[in-house]
Specification:
This protein is mostly beta strands. It is built from no helices and 11 strands. Strands 2, 4, 5, 6, 9, 10 and 11 form a 7-stranded mixed sheet that branches. A 4-stranded antiparallel sheet has the order 1-3-8-7, with no helix packed on it.
């Protein structure tokens, strides 16, 4: 079994910062790509940022410069540092992890989602 758990969300004032964490655990051989998405009420889920095992990153164009993704491969954990937060950043932030599992001598990758963490930016 594999679990992906997000943490670090909460209520923050406009202009403030938050750091989210996403930890993958369980029957894991490796974790390939990790990414953060967000979904606001009434809106579609959108990619925030992604990171590969060797640290290559990609971001939504609108969030470059304010959000930074990083990871600790030893802990199978990804982080999202969010700064200069705006009310429009309010959403549930979800983590996706591509988890490799050994089966019959080969590694197969599966996509797992966490349940999300709520981020609310409001004064």
């Amino acid at each position: 079994q594999v679990q992906v758990v997000e943490s670090g969300g909460g209520l923050v004032q406009p202009g403030g910062s938050l750091r989210l964490s996403c930890a993958a655990s369980g029957n894991i051989f490796s974790v390939r790509h990790m990414a953060w998405y967000r979904q606001a009420p009434g809106k579609e889920r959108e990619l925030v940022a992604g990171i590969t095992t060797d640290g290559r990153t990609n971001y939504a164009d609108s969030l470059k410069g304010r959000f930074t993704i990083s990871r600790d491969n030893a802990k199978n954990t990804a982080y999202l540092q969010m700064t200069s937060l705006k009310p429009e950043d309010t959403a549930v932030y979800l983590c996706n992890a591509e988890v490799g599992m050994l089966q019959r001598g080969a590694q197969y990758f599966y996509s797992y989602w966490g349940q999300g963490t709520q981020v609310t930016v409001s004064s």
